[in-house]
Amino acid sequence: MSRSGLRLPDLESYIVYLGGYSNQAERLLTQPNELVRKTHVELLESHLKSKENAKDAIFYSYTRHINGFAAILDEEVALAISSMGPSVCSMILLTRRGKLIGTRSFFKGFESYFGNLSSDLRTPRDTYGHGTHTLSIAGGSPVPGANVLGFGNGTAKGGSPRARVAAYKVFWPYKDYGSFGFDADILAAFDAAIYDGVDVLSVSLSSYSTNYFDCGIPIGAFHAILNGISVVASAGNSGPDLGTVKNVAPWLLTVGASTIDRDFPAYVIFGKHKLKGKACRMHPAANASYEDANVCLMGSLDATKVRGKIVVCVRGWNHATDKSAAVKLVGGKGMVLVNNFINGNNIVAKLHVLPATHISDSDALKLFSYLNSTKSPMGTISYPITMLGTKPAPSMAPFSSQGPNTITPEILKPDIIAPGVNIIAAYTMATSPTHNEFDKRRLPFNILSGTSMSCPHIAGIVSLLKALHPNGALTQSNQQS
């Protein structure tokens, strides 16, 4: 995230227009493209006093019908070039007016292991939603009327709403196994961000390490810190077990997740009938095990017994929205997602493809007791509402990874917590909120939970502090918290 733009804050993009060519065919014979590029470098070299700096500054050379180049320059050099006389027709300042001022993608490490990405994926465009969501939390402009299917309506804005932002994409999908990021790509992204002159890096990813220099994040962050860039990183989502916190390097500002005083409750009502369906036990398909059906794996449910009913699915193995998709595809009317003792009270909102709710392990025991004691169980899932002022808040999110720091226990981690449960923020229109192919919904906002969401909250605040104190010692932000 940058206060003023890519590269150094005192530099701007300029077009140096040198005219055109009256005879293109003759020009190609006397001045091939490489020779024209060389003249552009030589012109700029005469002002920068360095050929390498001139080459680095030029990001476009116009060599065909238009003669000129585009380069990153400071105002003094730009004025000097514009005063060169008739050889320079004009100088054009490119004012960065957009919110998103740069995107880069890094995939060579991924491709070296999994093979080449398809051409439609080999792009910095966010096709999953995670990057859009986190970036808008850090620096999104105010958007009135933001909501998710009518829930949580209000004005959404990032922690540093006037900041300009850049995106560095390092995670890529592999078949149906999820997304993967490689240290080679992560380091390349850090290297590019340092060169681009960003002010704050919001790193919503984590990996396990046994020392501070055996993976890409702490190494890249170390060099970012040396260049005056604050680095904020997620603590991970492996809680509530102890010693699960990630990104524990002392130069990182490591962020855990907390709840906020807003909730979206939907209640399960036993014995009454509002939804056209019935509560039911697990009914495995002929070729599926009870264990698969218990967690509602795709293809594991018996359609003849599930159709028209509310299905109880146990958390684990597959994504929560994949469970509700499995229920819907065999004709189920609703789903109650229940925690086991491991998940405890860790419940979050999800955009399911049918009426659904998520209950804690203690409430799950009550539900199972009812199901096992009733021959014809009946139930209702209430319509969810937006509830404000919930208490206690904030409280630690159960999924948020906890300390101690397993590398250096004396260095406490996480450093801080921030909102990371049921966060509404911008979302990509390239996919549905469930990522299921049959889900045709496309939403500008989505509700997500995780330390990936809490991290950019702090990154936005750090950006504001650096804007207020541009000469302050805020690089190692964890020492100021």
From TrEMBL:
What is the organism field in this record?
Vanilla planifolia
Name of the protein: Uncharacterized protein
**SUPFAM superfamilies named in the record:** PA domain (SSF52025), Subtilisin-like (SSF52743)
Keyword Transmembrane assigned: no
The Inhibitor I9 domain extends over 13-83
Q: Which GO terms describe its molecular function?
A: serine-type endopeptidase activity
**GO process annotations (BP):** proteolysis
InterPro entries in alphabetical order: PA_dom_sf, PA_domain, Peptidase_S8/S53_dom, Peptidase_S8/S53_dom_sf, Peptidase_S8_Ser-AS, Peptidase_S8_subtilisin-rel, S8pro/Inhibitor_I9, S8pro/Inhibitor_I9_sf
Instruction: Please name the taxonomic classification of the source.
Output: Eukaryota, Viridiplantae, Streptophyta, Embryophyta, Tracheophyta
Q: Residues in domain PA?
A: 279-367
Task: Indicate the segments forming the Peptidase S8/S53 domain, all copies.
Answer: 123-475
Which top-level group of life is the source organism from? Answer: Eukaryota
Sorted alphabetically, the keyword list is: Glycoprotein, Hydrolase, Protease, Serine protease, Signal
